[in-house]
Amino acid sequence: MTLPDDPIYQFDIENDQQAMALALIQAGFGMLNTTPNPRVGCVIVKDGRVIGAGFTQPPGGNHAEIQALADAAARGADVRGATVYVTLEPCSHFGRTPPCADALIRAGVARVVSAIADPNPLVAGQGLARLQAAGIATTCGLLEEEAVEINIGFLHRMRTGKPWVRMKSAASLDGKTALNNGASQWITSQAARDDGHIWRARACAIMAGIGTIAKDDAQLTVRAIDTPRQPRRIVVDSKLVVAPEARVIQGGGTWVFTACEDKEKTAALQAQGAEVIVLANAAGKVDLPALVAELGRRQINELHVEAGSRLNGSLVREGCVDELMLYLAPSLLGEGRGMFDLPPLEALSGKTELRFHEVKQIGPDLRILARFN
């Protein structure tokens, strides 16, 4: 719940859009710790004032609507006849917690405004239908685009069965991620590196290839900011050569995807708390589309990839990437290593099309979000 002195309670709410904007801010408070559940915010408005607010808690905890109702009760506010603004359709099924739609009906609210319908097959309009059947007025679609961005991974997984795959790379303006001798620290600024850790923190999992792990002894953890949860760590290692003492294995919980059956090496990694998953394709490499599908089954909403050019290129070629996040430094490196290992084209008509979603300056560098069509 919000703090007692939060200015949200001092606003005069003049329209639905203003109230939903406040609900979206609430949703953002759960950005780092609701996975695999969606990030949802809720505010309850009566007589032009917010009387309750909340956001979804970690799995097993209250959903946003329940938090907001509890907040209103703690303030001695009467929610009967109030309007509820929630960034995702209230749930109508029993999961780890009871249905939020039923709680709103019992509370006697008059109206519910949601930003987006829930594509979860267990909900999919049933939450709004249940409210309507109880005589509660409903509206859906307010500030939909903003709400989608907060939950792009959850929504994508509900619709496709796969996580939203975001691939991060840092390069010079001429597209080089390292010199020919491998030197790469640091091409982009500290501000860009810190920003990258913010995006790591919001992800459900961070993935790299064995080349990155071997070169840097990478940890694949969030370190630049405080976070209540470390994302799952994933290594793509076709030949299963990752060392049990590698930093990415320490602490347990790492998933190692491989194409190799090696009982002895698997046992050594399992002894460190890692899980080894064999998914081989016909070429004896890790089957990347199958890997992405498996992550969806394991309830990964957002996958953050920080890999080298070979794995980057393979993921792009096999249609496994939804979004590129590129940090470009205002420098030129000349001959060096690129971002993607892709085969040469015979004609420009074979180029891979993307669209710019956002371009923002981070310190001296640019952060470009580009999405595949």
List the defining traits of the structure above.
globular, nine-stranded mixed β-sheet, five-stranded mixed β-sheet, 28% helix, alpha/beta, single chain, 11 helices, 373 residues
What is the straight-line distance between the termini? Answer: 39 Å
Question: Which class of secondary structure composition applies to the elements?
Answer: alpha/beta
Question: Widest sheet: strand order?
Answer: 11-10-9-8-12-6-13-16-15
Number of strands: 16
> What is the subunit organization of this protein?
single chain
Amount of beta strand: 15-25%
Q: How is the biggest beta sheet arranged?
A: 9 strands, mixed
Secondary structure: helix percent: 25-40%
Written description of the protein model:
The structure is a single chain. With 373 residues, the chain is of the alpha/beta class. 28% of the residues lie in helices and 23% in strands. The protein has 11 helices and 16 strands. Strands 11-10-9-8-12-6-13-16-15 form a 9-stranded mixed sheet. Strands 2-1-3-4-5 form a 5-stranded mixed sheet, with helices on both faces. β3, α3 and β4 form a beta-alpha-beta unit. α3 packs parallel to α4. The longest helix is centred in the first third of the chain and has 13 residues. The chain is globular. The mean pLDDT is 93.
